[in-house]
Fold this protein.
Amino acid sequence: MSFPLFHVDAFTDRPFAGNPAAVCLLPGPREADWMQRVAMEMNLSETAFLHSEADGYRLRWFTPTVEVDLCGHATLASAHVLWEQGLLKPDVQARFQTRSGLLTASRHTDHVELDFHATPPAAAVPPHGLLEALGVTTGYVGMTRFDYFVEVNEERAVRGLRPDFAALGKLGVRGVIVTAEAASPGFDFVSRFFAPGAGIDEDPATGSSHCALAPFWGARLGKVEMAGFQASARGGVIGVRLDGTRVWLHGKAVTVVRGELLTR
């Protein structure tokens, strides 16, 4: 038995940048343990599994070590594969049933737009070891639905972070978002995302973190549409648009590998 398998770079318009995801098309549900072992074998920040269900697709995301509740870049990659493979017509919205409810993706001329719930941070007392592990001092620490959220004073500080990943992995959350207002032209804010507790020291381009970044910077900057740059080694460009309690994320994706997952 074999299943179509794709390696897609998301939130980028060129190969070997953005955030890589594996996308596996299944004929029906599979056991979580099997999907976790496949994700470990793929060894990418996320592996997405999807199969048709009702009027859309069931979508699940796995890091090499755990199943997660929300992943933006692997959702973008999954929608990209459905349109590219002709499983959805270009003008048909992709609809995904997930652990975070219904998520949708719409194809535009030069990008894909995802409709996600906003997850704004609420001010929080920094836990012992958080700032020490990042090596920063800060004026704001918050907590989102999934992650700690840390604002630092300038873009240069975000780019220069060299965290203690072992210490961050002990905080008991999915990850840590670090951000600053952008100094680079063409962007409103920059960020990085560290998730050693989920098996990913640094995620290259994280859609779900922008569900927190968008309302935070929207309030700070007085904007509803912004451009974010995730300053990882690969880099990622993620546009955001606020709409009440929703965040629209837009970006591009490129298929790098097409193949088959062989099982016995």
Observations:
- The domain at 122-244 is CATH 3.10.310.10 (Diaminopimelate Epimerase; Chain A, domain 1).
- The helical segments are 32-42, 72-84, 130-134, 155-159, 165-168, 210-221.
- The radius of gyration is 18 Å.
